[in-house]
Amino acid sequence: MNNIHIKRGFLPLASLPAFEAAARHQSFSRAAEELNLTHGAISRAVAQIEDRLGVDLFVRRNRRVYLTRAGQRLLLTASEMLSALDRTVEEIHRHDVHSPILSVSCEPSLAMRWLMPRLGRFREDNPDLNVEMHMAGGPVDLLASGYDIAIRRQDFGVPDDYVVTPLWSELAGPVCDPDCWQTILARDLTNARWLHSRTRPEAWDIWKKASGFDGRPASEQYFDHFFFALQAAVNRLGTAIGSLPLVIDDLAAGRLCAPMGMAPTGNDYVMLTLDSLKKDGRIARFATWLAAQSHETAEMANHLFPLPAAK
């Protein structure tokens, strides 16, 4: 019977990433910057490995370091091992394509004012798939968070390896209660209380620049979130900058009006995924449904606010 035993943990494995970075850069300082550690922490990690092996991994000359033959051999193995570990962790983090749960992250205002009122239709057509909603906006790490899908207003950079599916182009303009516009405001935006949100503080300025409007409000009020400003407009508390599709249902039902029209903001709403839609049947089903809802919303918006034909 073979009496050879493998001593697991012979090397301080926690020190390997520091060694690999230092060896790859042949610089302790650059390794420290990459791993967000101190130069001393990199030096101690390398020293731990050298002490265990009993050999030098680097030759230190004139404040620079160079790999020894032993260091070159260990770098090759460490790089392969860490890459394999990264691949395994990524596979673990990705959801099982057969899971009955689809994890969707969506911007809060969009989720509450547009997506969730329509989500019942998806559930009726897909009773075997439970959509788990997460409210979040801005940049998203799909792998770390475990989200299958993120729906975002693309006003930030997206990693090159994400699959980006366009949904619609955003339109925006002042919105308020129709009766207030005709009576209290006398069809004059300068008579209005302008509602602002701290999550989109530039909304009014962007619209004024795009429209050429140079008037000032009678008064102003600030809310912590865009959703609250829109709801305040519905509740006749003032006039907010509303965007499509967030106010499409209110406009169609007559709860709000957009007396100055709507104009493109230059931002698009998109769906973000890690893999192509064909790889995961759950994502494909949701994406197909979402595309249909997006098309329906775009048709409603075009009917309400037809854009001029391109010359």
List the helices and strands and how they pair.
Elements: H1 16-25, H2 28-35, H3 39-53, E1 58-61, E2 64-67, H4 69-93, E3 101-106, H5 108-125, E4 130-135, H6 142-145, E5 149-153, E6 163-175, H7 178-182, E7 193-197, H8 203-211, E8 219-223, H9 226-234, E9 239-244, H10 248-253, E10 263-273, H11 281-304
How would you characterize this protein structure?
Keywords: DNA-binding, Transcription, Transcription regulation. It comes from Thalassospira marina. Belongs to the LysR transcriptional regulatory family. The chain has 311 residues and is an alpha/beta fold. The protein folds into 2 domains: 13-93, Arc Repressor Mutant, subunit A (Orthogonal Bundle); 98-311, D-Maltodextrin-Binding Protein, domain 2. 43% of the residues lie in helices and 21% in strands. The protein contains 11 helices and 10 strands. The chain has helices at residues 16-25, 28-35, 39-53, 69-93, 108-125, 142-145, 178-182, 203-211, 226-234, 248-253, 281-304, and strands at 58-61, 64-67, 101-106, 130-135, 149-153, 163-175, 193-197, 219-223, 239-244, 263-273. The strands form 2 sheets. The protein has an 8-stranded mixed sheet with strand order 4-3-5-10-6-9-7-8, with helices on both faces. Helix 8 (203-211) links the parallel strand 7 and strand 8. Mean pLDDT is 88; it is low at 1-8.
